[in-house]
Specification:
Helix content: 25-40%
Number of strands: 3
CATH class: Alpha Beta
Oligomer: single chain
Strand content: 5-15%
Number of domains: 1
CATH architecture: Roll
Order of helices and strands: EEEHHH
Largest sheet: 3 strands, antiparallel
Strand order of the largest sheet: 1-2-3
CATH topology: Ubiquitin Conjugating Enzyme
Length: 125
């Protein structure tokens, strides 16, 4: 059993009434001694297809970078990430293919997201 208190695992669920609905998405949060003055490193362990999520799971989200404030707690971080799923920021693409499909072919984008959701069910072991 890992006893590193600076390394947390979390789960967020796909928001209802979105293509992400029903998905279970695992993340890892890595804190430093500087927390809460410095944001934790957060990345998805679950494979994702999203304009603001890199292929390695890193998340392009302002509150995890230049807009960080010590007032943000873990709940605020996870809620912001969950909100980002259904409300991407096209000005800050991390996955060019997902960004292109989101902007140009929403139907195909949603189909790819549904594939990720279905894969998340298989990854629950």
């Amino acid at each position: 059993m890992d006893t590193n208190i600076m390394l947390w695992q979390a789960v967020i669920f796909g928001p209802d009434d979105t293509p992400w609905e029903g998905g279970t998405f695992k993340l890892v949060l890595e804190f430093t001694e500087d927390y809460p003055n410095k944001a934790p490193q957060v990345r998805f362990l679950t494979k994702m297809f999203h304009p603001n999520i890199y292929n390695d799971g890193q998340i392009c989200l302002d509150i995890l970078q230049n807009q960080w404030s010590p007032i943000y707690d873990i709940s605020a971080i996870l809620t912001s990430i969950q909100s980002l799923l259904c409300d991407p920021n096209p000005a800050s693409p991390a996955n060019s293919e997902a960004s292109r499909l989101y902007n140009e072919n929403r139907r195909e984008y949603n189909r790819r997201v549904r594939e990720i959701v279905e894969q998340s069910w298989l990854d629950e072991s």
